[in-house]
Design goal:
The chain is of the alpha/beta class and 453 residues long. The protein contains 16 helices and 15 strands. The relative contact order is 0.15. The chain binds pyridoxal-5'-phosphate. InterPro entries: Aminotrans_3, PyrdxlP-dep_Trfase, PyrdxlP-dep_Trfase_major, PyrdxlP-dep_Trfase_small. One of its GO terms (molecular function) is adenosylmethionine-8-amino-7-oxononanoate transaminase activity.
Length: 453
């Protein structure tokens, strides 16, 4: 029997990324409040939020300073925009702070309200830039199979997941996908990580040559793939890929929407993985997920071209009502102040070996083929046969069942395509909470194994 709230939910709401058919029978998990790394449902049951919401609540729940920053800005200037040269101090100050933090040369910052809008802006600017330079054919964008970059028409096209393409009439022409860098799944027998990286870089180069380098504008990649399965790239991957991109003057866009702001134990994932992109997208943890904010960095050559375009066209014809919303900027400023003051990023790096050791132990479980991560993010892949890596029939929904068992154990984690389960807790998680998280996940895997047999 669904509770009153659950019944009302089923009667009224469309849920993103939910099996809408199954939802009618199962109903929602209705959460009411959160504190630290825990969230509580309407019956008062606590759960460890092992996904930091959607990879975003780095500072956990009910952080009083973030709440206060939002309330203060609401009381002072709840809305103002950045159109037509209008400005406000939270946006100016945040842009300054972000410029200073960025791991890559950054001339300016452009704000959006989400990761999708940030990456959509990246696509448009890659086109706009090449038009400004008179390279009108250089427009194709390369993403990766299993990459995730959002849901707008362009960013769902960048995304390399079937659910974002099938029956959506996507990807649009001009969006290509190169191979997924998942060594466990796609390396050949005996192929080292380095050799696998070299092979993938070669495949990318062949794709660029096949398409004609004069038609390829940009390549986009997450440092660690999130929604595609919490996949850490093999050793040497980005170094090999970057050599190819530089050879053909292809812009490199880092999608730091998950990895930005400490997830890998460094401020940005690019630093942890040796990436040197021309630009990056951020969102999520920039405000610890408390209010929507995203954005991109603009390098000096791009900025110069944008200024020239404005002189020619009369305006920079892009931006949304909420680009640089003052409340979002004020919360982001406070979040970054806390990251710095409380050494949150360093703390993530210090806790990472313990987190990764507990994650790695799950690889010994009967139904786990791989358990791997970096920093405070990780994923595991459930397999039917550890030796052959054979998977269960996707219709059996084994990872979904594991996630349901985890929920019954008081842990929220997420299942992803390919029977993968992702773990990405708030960065403030304490060592004993890391143990509780993995104890619960182990019990969920045990229950999944017993359910299968
Ligand atoms: N890029 C990455 C790497 C993401 O993980 C996500 C969302 O999970 C997005 C982009 C899209 O962000 P949003 O859902 O805020 O539009």
């Amino acid at each position: 029997m669904l509770s009153n709230l659950a019944t009302r939910d089923v009667e009224t709401l469309i849920h993103p990324y939910t099996n809408l058919d199954a939802h009618r029978a199962n109903g929602p998990l209705v959460l009411e409040r959160g504190q630290g790394v825990h969230v509580y449902d309407t019956d008062g049951r606590p759960y460890i939020e092992g996904m930091a919401g959607l990879w975003c609540t780095a500072l956990g729940y009910s952080n009083a300073e973030l709440v206060e920053a939002a309330a203060a800005q609401m009381g002072r200037l709840p809305f103002s925009h950045l159109f037509s040269g209008r400005s406000h101090d939270p946006a100016i100050e945040l842009a300054e702070v972000l410029k200073e933090l960025m791991p890559i040369p950054t001339s300016k910052v452009f704000f959006t309200s989400s990761g999708s809008e940030a990456n959509d802006t990246q696509v448009k600017l890659a086109w706009y830039y090449n038009n400004a330079l008179g390279r009108r054919a250089k427009k194709k964008i390369i993403g990766r199979s299993r990459g995730y970059h959002g849901v707008t028409v362009a960013t769902a096209s960048l995304t390399g997941l079937q659910a974002n393409h099938a029956d959506w009439d996507l990807p649009l022409p001009g969006f290509l996908h190169t191979a997924c860098p998942h060594h466990y799944r796609f390396a050949e027998a005996g192929e080292s990580e380095e050799a696998f990286s070299a092979r993938l870089a070669d495949e990318l180069e062949q794709m660029i040559l096949r398409e004609d380098p004069d038609t390829v504008a940009a390549f986009i990649a997450e440092p660690v793939m999130g929604a595609g399965g919490a996949i850490v790239p093999p050793r040497g991957y980005f170094q090999a890929i970057q050599t190819v991109l530089a050879r053909y003057d292809v812009r490199f866009i880092a999608d730091e929407v998950i990895c930005g702001f400490g997830r890998l134990g460094t401020w940005f994932g690019s630093e942890a993985l040796g990436m040197a992109p021309q630009t990056l997208s951020f969102a999520k943890a920039v405000t610890s997920g408390y209010v929507p904010l995203g954005g991109i960095t603009v390098d000096e050559p791009l900025y110069a071209a944008m200024v020239d375009q404005s002189a020619k066209l009369g305006t920079f014809g892009h931006g949304t009502t909420y680009s640089g919303h003052p409340v979002a900027c004020a919360v982001a400023l406070k979040a970054i102040e806390i990251y710095r003051r409380d050494r949150i990023v360093e703390g993530a790096a210090e806790k990472a070996p313990h987190f990764q050791a507990r994650l790695a132990r799950l690889a010994e479980h009967d139904i786990v083929g791989e358990a791997r991560g970096i920093g405070l993010i990780g994923g595991l892949e459930i397999v039917a046969d550890k030796r052959t890596k054979a998977q269960y029939d996707p219709k059996a929904g084994v990872a979904a069942r594991c996630v349901a068992f985890a929920q019954a154990e008081g842990l929220i984690v997420r299942f992803l395509t390919g029977d993968r389960v992702a773990v990405c807790p708030p960065l403030i998680i304490a060592p004993d909470e890391i143990d509780a998280l993995f104890d619960r996940l182990t019990r969920a895997l045990d229950r999944t194994r017993d359910w299968i047999r």
